[in-house]
Sequence to fold (539 residues):
Amino acid sequence: MYLKRLTSVVMLIIVVLLNFRVSTAGIDSFTSDDTVSFLDIDGWYREAVEYNASLGIIRGTGMRLFSPNGDMTQAMAVTMLGRLSEIYGKSIEYSGGAYWYSRYAVWAENSLIVPDEELPFIPSATVKREAFAAYLCNTLDYLEIAPPNLPGWNNRENGWKSYNRPMPLQESGNESVNLHSQWSWPSFGGLCESGIFIGYPGNDFVPGAVITRAEACQILMRLCREYLFSDIDEKQTDSMSGTTPDHHDYIGVVVSTVEELLDAIAPNTHITLNAGRYDVSTVAGKYTPYISWLEDIYGHGERTLVIKGIDGLTLEAAPNAIVEIVTPWLYAEVLYFQYCNDISIIGITAGHIVTEIYQCDAGVINFYLCDKVYVDDCVFFGSGTTGIRISNCNNVLIKDTVVTDCSFTAINIHSSNDVEVIYCQLVDNRGYGYVVSAFTSNAVFRNCEISGNRFLWHGVIYVSNGYWGISEVLFDGCTIIDNAPDIATYGSGEYVLIKESQFHVLPMPQVSIKDCEIELGEFSQYWNNAVDLGGNVLK
Fold:
């Protein structure tokens, strides 16, 4: 049905030409890549993660994160080892399946990678260190490579189960090594003796512990450098960047016009935008399977560009290019993402190009029912009512972004979880709302500047609960200064800089402030019920 072999070959040719996928032609065809850049690998594992990412073995968990301390699952394990096999020269066919690990799960089953004791295959099941050793040795068996320091290894026909290796480490004094399962000893014991598994500080191997993603990378780096690819320069690696999520191989497209931009929007696509202004109003009415238009509710005939149902899309400005995505319409949002997964917006300026600021009645960028959203180095300007709206989303990272000239809120977060806003500037907004609004959401604002904002209702930050849950918001290391209510318009009153509100019988939202610089100015108090975690400088 899927024309497996033909599809595999065609797709392989396309992506290799575009230089965005792992080649299966063998290690000799690989070239170096120094662009790996995860945001969360400042630890002992950094070198190992970057090494594996440069090979293409791992590609992160989304939003340019690697999650080094996350547990290794069966889906992750077979995917990593499948990619390692491809790098070594094996071809793993596309076999259908709806999930990012489907192809490698089928391969692992057909190639006997998962030991019997780990069956049935459950994608979300965690993998212990001793089990990962068995996965790894079975992969070496599949590659017809004698596992290191295992002289009793015969061949794939005999298999690991028939290898009755003794347990010589009892006299080593390391009690934890002896806590392994009987079935895992041939692989785990051998890899410990070979130095591929070194163990924790204190020479503690802990075979029964769940292996982390960082530990797996360290083990694979040792194996690759010392045994698999020791005869070549370690810099001869694949050109994968390593910053895209685990379940996407991206096709690269370069565009220069708004028409080309809309044509290119598709799943698993990295779109590079050349310098210029992309006015979405000029292509209103152009439909694709992933593009639709939302009429404004006021009947002005203005329409919002809706990008929907995309799994894996990056919009990124070309290096050193000024890229603007805009609309002149007062009642239309610039970009609206619905039901999307793994969306990255990088280096883009977006907003309303109008003659008088603060007069629009629509936002700039809107994410609704999306998972894994990454925004970096962007500028969102008014006079949109809201700069960034995040509704019913999970796993959102907004980084190094400026939101300005908005007439209602800079950032509105509604019914969303795991939202992080770091190193952002929410400045010079004017209007009738709060700079930050959070409803029934879990969010962190870290090292952000909130300043120069005016014409506010009652406060700068508003956090509220709803029927469906309680908000938990942390402000950590933020600068909140030079913000003032428009007393001339709204009159004097009890203006609270950070206002919390409960809904009916629910508890108050959990708002915490830590290491922030806060200026009271014309506000009557800083906050009503927030938790002071210390380190705050109040002016």
The chain has a mean pLDDT of 77. Residues 408-539 form one domain.
